[in-house]
Each structure stands twice: as C-alpha cells, then as structure tokens.
Specification:
heterodimer, A: mainly alpha, Rna Polymerase Sigma Factor, Chain: A, Arc Repressor Mutant, subunit A, 2 domains, 10 helices, B: alpha+beta, Jelly Rolls, Phage tail protein beta-alpha-beta fold, 3 domains, 14-stranded mixed β-sheet, 3-stranded mixed β-sheet, globular, Anti-sigma factor (chain B), sigma factor antagonist activity (chain B), Ferrdict_sens_TM (chain B), FecR (chain B), transmembrane helix (chain B)
C-alpha cells in the first residue's frame, strides 16, 4: 500500500474576484451578497466572544448587515470593509451587553486593559477561517474518545450538560469532567492560536 | 488547581452554570490575577473551538436577510439555467446554488420538479426547503418535487451526496431514492455514493440511524432492509444496468454474496474517507487505482483509460488536499507507481512505465 500526501496552501479567500476594500460597491446587490456570505460566519464567531450566546451573536450580525444595506448610500468607509464590519459588530455587541446589563468577565478584562482594538485586529487578520477550522478539528480529533464525544455534543450540537448525560447514560458530573478535560487539552494544543495570548506576550514579554 | 473550582469555571465559560455558581466563579476570577489568566485562556479556547463547528449556515442567514430587505429575490427558485463558470469564480460562488426548473414537471403529481445538476469538476452545497443541508459531489443530480417539505420529503439522487438532515417537526421521514435503494431517515448525517453508472453503492452514517431498503442481490428478487447506525458503512456491489435495463460489465466470475454486501464498523478517522470531498479533499483508504480514477474523472472532468489492467488493481491510501488539477494528482501517484500517462485534452491514458 502506498501513501500520498500533498498540500496546496492557496488561500481560497483570496480567489474572489470582487475586491473587498473601501471601494467595494455595496450598492450592487451581488457584491453585497458575496460580502454577506463571506463574512457572516467569522463575524458571528467574533460576536460570540463578547456575547457568549451563539444565537444572539448571529442575530447581531444579521442586524448589522440589514443596517448596512439600508444605509449603504450614506456610509463612507475610511478603512477596509472588513475592518468596518468587525468594528460595527463589536460596537453592537458592547451596546447590547450594556443595554441588557449583562456582565462578561472577558469583556470586563478587555475594558480594563483597553484591549478591544488589539483583539479585533488580531482576530480579523489571523488565520484563514478554513485553516483555523482544520487545525481545531485536528485538535478535537486527538482528544480521548469519550471526552471527544461529550465535547462535540456540547460544542457543536449545543447540547446542555443534562442532555448529554441523558443521551450517553452517564452522570452530569462525568459530563462536566469530560468537558473540563477536553478544554484543558485543547488549550494546550491550541495555545499558539489564542488571540489574547499573542497580545499579552507582545505586551509583557 | 482544585478540581471543584475548575469544573465550575468550565461550567461558567460554557454557559451552563447556575446564577449562584456564576457568582462563585466571578469572585474566584477576581480574587487573583492567575485565576483570571486561567479563565481567559479557557474562555479563548472555548471560543476558538467553535471555528471547527459548521452549524452556522450563511445560506440560511442570507435567505432570511434577503427576505427582510428585499435585496434580491433569490429565495425560492431561480428560473435561470445555472451557468458553470471557471474554477476561480466557483470558489467565490461556492455557496450559491444553481437551480433550474424542469419545464415538464412530474407527471404523477402534476407539480414541477426541481432538478439540481452538478457538472463534473465541481461540488456544490445547498440547503433544501426543510433546512436539510446537502453537499453534492461532482457529476451528481438531485431531484425533488416542488412541494418538498410540506407533506413529503422525498429526493432522488444519482451520484454522491453528504446530507445533514434537518429534524422534521411533524416527523415527516426523509426518503432518499437512488437507482437501487431507498434510504429512510428522520434526522441524521450521512454520506451516500450511488452513481447509476457505477457498480458500487456506499453509505456511511455519521450520526443517527437510517434504513436502506432494496434489492441487495441480483439473484434474489426479494427486497431486503438493512439498518445502519453511527460509524457504520454499508457497501453493496451490484451489476451496472444500462438504459435498456440489461446488465453490462458483468464480472468474469459470479461474485459470492459476501462480495456483494458488506456492513462494517469504522473508526472516526476512517469516516473522513466518506466526507472528505465536501472539504475539497479526496481521501482514500486502500482503494484501487481504478476506483480512484473514477473519482478523478468526476472531480476533474476527464476520461481515464488504463492500458494495463494490472495498474488498475494498485491500491492507495492517503489524502489529496485541494489539488486543483489532474496533472498534479497524477504526479503524486506517479511517485510511487511504475506508470506514465499522456493527457490529450480531457482524455488521459495510463500505461505501465517502459523499462
């Protein structure tokens, strides 16, 4: 038996013909659509860092796009469209938290240390989404079997601990322990990807 | 660190802590910078791990957005014939769906049928009206009735597709018809490979359970039913029927029943073989060169002929990642195989390396 392995690292994000910068013509519905499709997922994940609620995060991103479409004629971009989108989503999230009086320790930390710009830049410019997904997928696959099963149900199926316990016929405590172990193992293998760590090491080391 | 607080911390981060537990954790985080650093790292890890989750569907979101803003009537069916474009543009439009209406409709119900054809050389992802997500591999056709999702959920498949079936509120079963089998399911994830012009039928279940019903043997006229659950793969080899329903490519010797049908448990890593193509990977696990060539033919829209039957039987394991053209793919195989090839437009001939 023979083994084949080859990588083609061309970034599919770069293959788009429509330039996404301040000259992007948002009046063109086709362009707008491609912008929406291209950024929807990463913006939702970005919003989720502040809100820690995926459904809400998706809603915030959709609302932002609706706003952008309705005001497209008035908006003048001084920066890249991508930078604008990230900033708009961040502002909406922070307003939402303020309005709902929700406390998030992560957000508090960013406020205290004035790190919003750094985190946003680091996240929006880091890896291509596909690459990131692959690396994380690999790390998840390396988890011990039971641990992985529980983690996937929790993270990707959005099951509550109680539901996981019931469907796998194990105790809730066991579920909690599996998730704790999974997260710690992932932290170790993904260390180099953590946005905040990169920033912290730049500042303190 | 103490296990109790670590568990609580994780519960808090994953949004599963009670209000009281949350207060305890917050106090703990604020008590010490080290605790805070620990929290931040795990919080980041938790959010990072979501990047591997594909449950966020930009197609659905865009449809909703388009409806709300009237930006473009893209929801529903576009009455244009899809135009197949060069590969660079395909990347950009990877999620856009090409629909065209079959003007003759379905003669039984009198309603229009929706036909989605993916040409060779490309793959396509689409969301069906019930929320089911389907990836269609190259050279695949998927048909369904316009009233799909209302009283029935039946689709007809010729080719290979990866389905993430949406749960149905009214428990309408999802029926997938191939040329030989009917697959029934009410909410699961699976890959099925059923090209009418190939003898191999392959079905891999990633989540949930399904049943496969049909004639499993050409010698036995009775229909059978096989149940598959997670991490199981069903392989069936049946003679290829041509248009006049006559057997073609009859194997030289009659295969026994063991060769006709096989149900195996596989590891999660092996499961990759059955869905890698949705990520532009081609994953092979001990497949014959002939079978790989069949995949190449569809993926790169070429025709591959072997001059030497021995070469067809070579077996390979490995993964092709994002290989854009057939030339690079063949170059890789050539490294470990005594072969040479000639490419003439889309006709490829593979022969044994002359000594």
């Amino acid at each position: 038996m023979r083994t084949i392995a080859l990588e083609d690292t061309a970034d599919p994000d770069m293959a788009g013909k429509i330039p996404v910068n301040k000259d992007t013509d948002l009046n063109n519905p086709k362009v707008f659509e491609s912008v929406f499709r291209r950024y929807y997922v990463e913006l939702s994940l970005f919003a989720n860092r502040f809100l820690n609620d995926l459904d809400m995060s998706k809603e915030v991103v959709s609302d932002m796009f609706t706003f952008l479409w309705e005001r497209r004629k008035e908006i003048r971009l001084n920066e890249s469209l991508k930078a604008y989108l990230y900033k708009a989503v961040q502002n909406r999230c922070l307003n939402y938290l303020k309005h709902k009086k929700i406390e998030n320790e992560y957000v508090n930390y960013l406020y205290r240390n004035n790190l919003f710009d750094e985190v946003r830049t680091s996240l929006s410019n880091s890896y291509s989404q596909k690459e990131l997904a692959e690396q994380i997928q690999c790390a998840v696959e390396r988890l011990p079997e039971k641990c992985r099963e529980v983690f996937k149900l929790s993270r990707h199926k959005h099951f509550k601990n109680e539901e996981i316990a019931r469907s796998l016929n194990i105790s809730q405590k066991t579920v909690e322990r599996h998730i704790t172990i999974a997260l710690e193992k992932l932290r170790q293998s993904l260390k180099y990807l953590l946005a905040l760590l990169l920033i912290l090491s730049e500042i303190f080391l | 660190m103490e296990r109790g607080i670590e568990n609580l911390l994780v519960k808090y981060i994953t949004g599963q802590a009670s209000e009281e537990e949350g207060l305890v954790v917050k106090d703990w985080i604020r008590a010490d910078e080290k605790n805070e650093a620990r929290y931040l790292e795990l919080y980041e890890t938790w959010h990072l791990s979501l990047y591997a989750d594909h449950s966020i569907d930009p197609d659905l979101a865009y449809e909703k957005f388009a409806k709300e803003t009237n930006i473009q009537k893209r929801t529903g069916i576009r009455r244009i014939r899809a135009i197949w474009i060069s590969s660079a543009a395909v990347v950009l439009l990877a999620c856009a769906i090409g629909f065209y209406l079959n003007p003759f409709g379905n003669s039984i119900s009198g309603r229009s049928e929706i036909v989605i054809s993916v040409p060779k050389g490309t793959t396509r992802k689409l969301t069906l009206p019930d929320g089911t997500i389907a990836w269609l591999n190259a050279g695949t056709t998927l048909r369904y009735n316009q009233n799909f999702g209302k009283e029935q959920r039946s689709v007809y498949l010729n080719g290979e597709a990866y389905f993430d079936i949406a749960a149905s509120e009214r428990n309408i079963p999802f029926l997938l018809n191939t040329d030989k089998f009917v697959i029934r399911d009410i909410g699961t994830v699976f890959n099925v490979k059923a090209y009418a012009d190939e003898p191999d039928f392959e079905m891999a279940v990633f989540e949930g359970e399904v049943s496969v019903e049909g004639k499993f043997s050409s010698h036995n006229p009775q229909k059978g039913k096989v149940f598959l659950s997670e991490k199981q793969v069903l392989k069936v080899k049946t003679p290829v029927l041509n248009k006049s329903n006559k057997k073609v490519a009859e194997p030289a010797r009659k295969p026994d029943n063991n060769e006709l049908i096989k149900l195996v448990e596989v590891t999660p890593a092996q499961m990759e073989e059955y869905k890698g193509w949705t990520d532009n990977f081609l994953v092979f696990d001990g497949e014959s060169f002939r079978k790989i060539a069949n995949d190449f033919e569809r993926r790169y829209n070429v025709k591959i002929t072997f001059q030497d039957p021995d070469l067809e039987k070579y077996e390979y394991s490995g993964t092709f990642r994002d290989i854009r053209d057939i030339r690079s793919a063949l170059q890789i195989i050539k490294k470990t195989t005594p072969m040479e090839y000639t490419i003439n437009d889309s006709e490829i001939i593979i022969k044994k390396l002359a000594k």
